[in-house]
Task: structure prediction
Amino acid sequence: MPAPGALPGGLMFQPKSRGYRALPFTPEQSPGPVLVQRRRGNLIQTRFPDLVRAAGQLPEGLVLDGELVVWDGEHMSFEALQRRAASSGRTAGRLAQELPAHFIAFDILQNDGRDLLDEPHSARRTALEDKFTQYRLAAP
Result:
């Protein structure tokens, strides 16, 4: 991968993982549901209760952009992710224990209920990194 600042014009990129593009939304005001939306708009939070629990610890009015993946202990498994995405009810809860989901955040679209889409990517990236520091977020 190129070093930061090595690409012309300040271009940036994010490597594609073996996952689904997803956007977790924390509620604007508590209490409220955490929503997880796929790229095409369908909501999938009932299939990923582990991700919903984790996102529930984040501040209100936050929208992240990133990739939802499942680590099977050795590598990212698209097959395991598909199993998780097709699950429901108690099966979704069981699979959350067996095949936990992880979210790779690469952008912040809303912060404290304020839309950041008109902000330059560098400012959004800084805001995302600040959230990781503030909430002590780390892999996985």
